[in-house]
Amino acid sequence: MEVIRTTQTQLARKKRSILGSKKMLVYVMFTIPALLLYIGFFFYPTLMGFNYSLTNWDGMARTYKYIGLDNYLAIFKDTRFLHSLGFTFKYTLIVVILKITLALGLAMLLTTNLRFRGLFRSIYFFPAVLSLITIGLIFNEIFLTILPAIGEALGIEALSRNILGNKDTALYGIIIANVWHGVAVPMVIFMAGLASVPKDLHEAATIDGASRSQRFVSITLPFLIPMLNVNLVLIIKGGLTVFDSIVAMTDGGPGTSTESIGFLIYRHGLLENKFGYATAESIFIFALIALISFVQMKWLSKKEVGQQ
Amino acid sequence: MKKHQTLKQTALFGAAVALAVTAGCSNGGEEVSGKEASTANTGGKVKLELLSNKSDVTETLNKVIAKFHENNPNIEIEVNAPPNMLKVLAMRIANNDAPALFTVYPSAPSMRQPVKDGYYADLTGDKTLFSNVIPSFVDFSKTLDKNYTVPYALEGYGVTYNVDMFKELGLSIPKTYDELIQAAEKIKAAGKTPFLFPDKEYSVIRQTTAAFLGLDIPNASQLFDDVINGKQHIADNQEVRKVAQKVLDLRKYGQKDLLGTAQDNVIRDMAAGKGAMFFHGMWQAPAIKKANPNLNIDIFPFPADKAEDTKVAMQVGTALSIPKDGKNNSEAKKFMEFFATTEMAQMYADETGNISVIQGVKPNYKENKTLADYALSGKLYRAADSTWTPAMQDDFGKATQELIGGGTIDAYMKKLEDIFYNKGN
Amino acid sequence: MKENTLVRAIQYTALLVGVFIVMIPVYLTINLSFKTQVESAQSFFAPPSGLYFGNFASVIKGKFWINLGNSLMITLVSMLFIMVLIPMVSFAISRNMKHGYFKFVFYFILAGIFVPFQVIMLPVLKHMSNLHLLNQLGLILMYIALSFTQGIFLSVGFLKNVPIELDEASTIDGCGIWQTFVRIIYPLMLPIIVTIVTLNSLWIWNDFQLPLILLNRSPNYWTLPLFIYNFKSDYGANYNVAFAGFLLTMLPIILLYSVMQRHLISGLTEGALK
Hints:
The complex is a heterotrimer. Chain B is an alpha/beta fold.
């Protein structure tokens, strides 16, 4: 009896494992197409990037030489690149502050009991569906033609010049266009976070006599942290890779004052025949962004709800 | 069971259809030039792609092509004029995807590298192609001492000016630089803007400044060549310094917001009669006339310090080349020859205003008349940037833009040393 | 109570000011595209005396329709593949998280979030050129590949809330894995699929950088963003035509938005909560 049972169990196990491995195969097949595409069109180019960064290729010539880490060493001496780093970080910092504050403020306003709430939400979300290149071009035209004309008519000196024509103010033109576009999505994400706060927590706290600000800090804020995390990742990544609006409005000018990292890499690689060098610059940025994202996520995950 | 098989099959079928449609609808890698036209010699239809940098003359080019097609019904030519055409050309050539015919600038930086790399067909000595070209310009259009292109017309720089404004203020055409400044003073005193500078665009700044360099410094191209090859420094070059100062001096007579003004604004303002003079290419005049057909404009050459030194910055602006060992070179050459006939050259010159270098063309150049006279009588020169690389051109433009934006000449000269002697950052 | 009304008033004012700021560029674009150059030189903000369609005529003279078609085809085909592939992979991963292979695939794809676009921007040009894929098909393949990191992250997270008991029940009924997926899992995944489709189609439709790099050989290949960027050289100094161009490129999205906005916003909200 026992022998039969053991054999039966063994058979059952074997059956399960054969069926199991058949099942496994199907699951694996489910992943193959996507994996192949991912490797072929994302992973492989990344490896190519690493490869080219070790060469002096100009992007056109038939041959190139391997020059080891020379490109990376040159980056540290490249004032134009270092300037673009500074510009990009300054830009990102300002944009992050502006977008987060405006998005949070709007989200809070739009989750209270307001009339026309739906209409307001639709209007405020609209800029997000437009492309940054179109937005950049529209604002470029506004700064070029419309604002100066208005400024002159009203006699306001500051307005009657093209703010994109001055190396100190061009930055703000780009910021305006990007903030106009980029408040909508973080706002919606914050709204989701605000909606996820259980109402009874608020009620309990009010009964206990907590003031509005106390309620905000102790109850709402912790629920907003994961949203803040998501928004920070999105906005920082967008800020560090700013490109479309610069191409539309300043082309890196006046001079080289509004060249972002992404823009400079594009210039170096495709317009100035420094293909190998440009890929080295991009790997450098890769390392930087990885570091920043890592640090940011670690720091914020400590503060999430349920981890106190 | 059946339901789900159908679902699966539908999904797969849908995906296959989508891919097929995409592959079919998306243009293949070679568009119309090489592969499908290999039926050439059998007398079958041949389709050639003409990659052109000159989007403003596409209409006229198409007329020439139409006439050509009448005489050669088995050869079709399609003009493709993308922006950044020179970059597109460079990329396609590097990827073995050269167009059958393309426009080039034989004296420009964009020509040298592909010639050195052996990508263009050597046309030196081809009697049929050059038989109708003015001989001095066969020489003028050589690159590295050989002919890689057939030249058709020149284009160059001059000062487009508002004729009515000049008449109003009693101004005559300045023959020397000092006279130019005097005229500017009078215009300023009358409350108008003497010059319009589109300084938001550093490529324009590069073009005009390179023209100044070529005008004021004899053998400017040689100077830069020496600096690039390490034989000379530029940081202490007094002649270049003087030109830098000139650039700043002229800006004093410019509009209020220099760096914020794009080419579009300048064209609009000229058309609206707000500015007196605009120094740039002669192709700006048609654009201005389009914006205001009632405006009276004409062009005079930018004067040198001494009247007899005045010459015009010109380059061969309309020229065609073919790839080395191109499959359709014989058909392409037929078109290149056809375009060089006096009849076609006349039509091209009349419609586009570009100064023809083909023999027998009557000069009906309207605004460009003065420039044409100078050019065709030998008083022409190549702007200083003809020996630079495209990267140097951009860096130079940006550096000069920074100078205009409030930089010092010392910093500027150091930057130039960096760009040309140290070959960039 | 008085305090509340005051607060309310301030809130409404703030919101209205914001609406104003948001709408001005849009208003200007619409307004100026219907005016002639002469009219707009007199006033930017006054509504046009008559609806001038000449500017729009200038815009559609060129390759506008071809480029619109390109944008449509690229977006739709990419979305088709994304809608099929991402749920497939996420399903396989989420049901086998303990297994080494699937864990590896998950983190391998997730790691892509750290890779900024610039790293592959230049190599992709060379890569696609070697494969003769410097065309719309190549662009589609790129978009699909680039959609995986975010899409799979969202989907796997979503699938945590789809209990595995459902799978097992389906297996007991005699269904294979594919049928389980198609009959049960996929329909349940629709909310997150909508989110992913929304996010990706917006991105693909409006993307500028990738087409700039891959499709630059000829205007026949362009998408709408490339069209409007290059359109500058065509209209010269006539900014009314420029604004007409902007409006036309915005029109498809505006139309879609007015129909879909509630779904868009709620779709994003769902996604964010996951």
